[in-house]
Design a protein that fits this description.
- With 579 residues, this protein is α+β, with helices and mostly antiparallel strands.
- The protein contains 15 helices and 11 strands.
- The strands form 3 sheets. It has a 6-stranded mixed β-sheet with strand order 1-5-6-4-3-2. Strands 7-9-10 form a 3-stranded antiparallel β-sheet. The protein has a two-stranded antiparallel ribbon with strand order 8-11.
- Helix 4 packs antiparallel against helix 6 (237-252) and helix 6 (237-252) runs antiparallel to helix 9.
- The longest helix is centred in the first third of the chain and has 20 residues, at 144-163.
- The chain is globular.
- The protein starts with 14 loop residues before the first helix and ends with a helix.
- The relative contact order is 0.14.
- It binds adenosine-5'-triphosphate.
- The site of adenosine-5'-triphosphate (ATP) has 28 residues, from strand 2, strand 4, strand 6 and helix 11.
- ATP binds at residue 67.
- Residues 38-340 form the Protein kinase domain.
């Protein structure tokens, strides 16, 4: 059976039977290479937990991306989260899903090296852009055929994932990679997991959830209302909400729901989609996160906000951003939406213009947008490996002529005196930045001094996390948050973070009005008679409480027992997080 065959309403497969049914041919993996088989060319991105680098295979000459696997605690060995991501990616084979090609290992440079364990890298084909970076390039304007082309590919990829019982759980523009052949691929499976519910079927939305998972997933700006209200029995519909946010972002040229806290996120969702009612989101009042909410009634301004984009786009957006997750359109149905069948027709990938490469990192570096981005959920796979926050890339892997960047297998001190990684010598500067002479990123938000206990609004997520340095002047005295090398996670709170500069909507050609009667379509939700009976079970308040009160720290100096306990908690939390 091919993996493409497995769509349509089947019962949940166990991960094992899924794996057996969908094995990629053995010869599609070359085993494990050495990092020295790759020439490192520059940093592409920083995920929540670390770095992604561009590299060239010395064997094949192909450009690749190397994603470093986070090792939170060497004693625990290879992280289970990374194992899951690798296992999933090895199974998947679809033109719109990023392909894992190889694993590369970097051994400690010398026997005296403090770092005992090797660092592992995931090797994937190099993609010229991520959607977030591309949208932030001021010289790039998406046309409607182009948006339709990307949307179709995104929906095809998601249809494939959902048909194969996989929830992505971190759908966002930065995780959608695009190459200069116009191909879009879904990346970053660090939060993905096997889904045990029924797969979507035409006309039935995302269906009903069968079991509970953690609601601590999805980056805030792309997080659906049911997760913000802590629904645990969620479905593939959580990814569809993210698709709606990405679609809106492509239309507007900027994120459409840039909440500054979980509560604020819900507020702006209600501004856009209307305050929930028993009709638009049945059962919402009994969700644990809704109990304290007293939203002021409003009808939602989606049609008004997107009026320049025509009724087709508005109709699809409304289907994707339905408050009721059971009625939210699924990928199968979204692909059939008239938006894609009316003029202007979707472009073919090969017809799209070629853009200069752009990644999230470029934007973060040059636009000071990073500080305003919401935190990705915990559980990523890349990161500062093992001992030493920026361990990785032993001397020879950068190859000769790197202006002394080696530093004995460690990054040297960065410009400016901090201890973060310096940009590689040949770091890319996009032309649009060079031309505009944008300033370097200013220092991180000023709330560092408050330590970790500041007034973070994102209650359970980043309320107790330290900010992450990305090479700017670090918190504390003259350096990054001391002794927390491998665990620091960004904190972008309402007060401390730099809000994203509000750009005017991109210039685009006058909207095309489609000669379609949108009201003709049958967009009725699936029957609701038994929804109430199947409402999610009671909330797990303890889990929530325990998250808010934890601190994670890992010190290389002698550690008080209390800190050790906190670290143990943190490790435990990381495991439970992936449920
Ligand atoms: N194959 C690739 N080609 C080009 N760039 C890539 C590739 N893989 C990742 N990147 C870049 O690195 C960034 C981070 O990668 P990824 O999302 O996989 O890491 P992460 O730590 O899980 O991130 P996040 O915290 O955003 O969830 C991407 O947004 C993208 O800019």
């Amino acid at each position: 059976m091919s993996i493409h065959d497995s769509g349509g309403g089947g019962a949940a497969m166990s991960p094992r039977s899924f794996a057996i049914a969908h094995q990629r041919p053995k010869n599609s993996f070359v085993g494990c290479s050495r990092i020295t088989d790759y020439e490192i060319l520059g940093k592409l991105g920083e995920g929540t937990f670390g770095e992604v680098h561009r590299a060239r295979s010395k064997k094949t000459g192909a450009l690749v991306a190397l994603k470093k696997i986070i090792m939170h605690n060497e004693k625990d060995g290879f992280p289970i989260t990374a194992l899951r991501e690798i296992k999933l990616l090895k199974l998947l084979s679809h033109k719109n899903i990023l392909r894992l090609e190889d694993m590369a290992v970097e051994h400690p440079a010398r026997s005296s090296d403090k770092r005992k364990r090797p660092i592992m890298y995931m090797v994937t084909p190099y993609m010229d852009h991520d959607l977030s970076g591309l949208l932030d390039n001021p010289s790039v304007t998406f046309t409607e055929p182009q948006i339709k082309c990307y949307m179709l590919q995104l929906l095809e990829g998601l249809k494939y994932l959902h048909a194969n019982h996989i929830l992505h759980r971190d759908m966002k523009a930065a995780n959608l990679l695009i190459n200069n052949k116009g191909i879009l691929q879904i990346a970053d499976f660090g939060l993905a997991r096997h889904y045990e519910g029924d797969v979507p079927v035409p006309g039935r939305g995302g269906g009903e959830g069968k079991r509970e998972y953690t609601s601590l997933v999805v980056t805030r700006w792309y997080r659906p209302p049911e997760l913000l209200m802590h629904l645990k029995r969620y479905t593939t519909a959580i990814d569809m909400w993210g698709v709606g946010c990405v679609f809106g972002e492509m239309l507007m040229g900027k994120p459409i729901l840039a909440g500054e806290s979980d509560v604020h996120q819900l507020e702006i969702i209600f501004d856009l989609c209307g305050t929930p009612t028993e009709q638009t989101m049945p059962g919402w009042r009994s969700l644990p996160g809704a109990e304290a909410l007293q939203p002021r009634p409003r009808p939602g301004n989606l049609s008004e906000r997107f009026r320049n984009h025509g009724p087709g786009a508005i109709s699809l957006l409304k289907d994707l951003l339905r408050l009721d997750w059971r009625a939210r359109v699924n990928a199968i149905d979204a692909l059939q939406h008239p938006y894609f069948r009316n003029q202007p027709y979707p472009a073919q990938p090969g017809d799209l213009p070629v853009f200069e490469e752009s990644h999230e990192f470029d934007r973060r570096k040059f636009h000071d947008r990073r500080a305003a981005l919401p935190p990705a959920p915990k559980g990523g796979t890349v990161g500062q490996g093992g001992v030493g926050a920026h361990a990785g890339f032993n001397g020879d892997s950068y190859g000769p002529g790197r202006n002394g960047v080696n530093g004995g297998g460690r990054y040297p001190a960065p410009r400016g005196g901090g201890r973060g990684p310096p940009p590689p010598a040949d770091e890319r500067v996009p032309a649009w930045h060079r031309d505009r002479g944008l300033p370097p990123r200013p220092p991180p938000p000023g709330d560092y001094e408050n330590g970790w206990g500041g007034d973070h609004r994102d209650s359970y997520r980043d309320g107790d996390r330290p900010p992450r340095s990305r090479g700017g002047p670090p918190p504390g005295v003259g350096g990054r948050e001391p002794d927390r090398g491998d665990i620091y996670i960004p904190s972008y709170d309402r007060d401390g973070g730099h809000p994203p500069p509000r750009r005017d909507e991109r210039r685009r050609p006058p909207p095309h009005r489609e000669p379609h009667d949108w009201d003709d379509r049958d967009r009725r939700p699936p029957p609701r008679d038994d929804w109430d009976r199947r409402r999610p079970g009671p909330p797990d308040y303890d889990e929530h409480r325990s998250r808010t009160s934890r601190t994670r720290s890992r010190s290389r100096s002698p550690m008080p027992p209390r800190d050790r306990d906190m670290i143990r908690d943190r490790e435990r939390e990381r495991d439970t997080y992936r449920r």
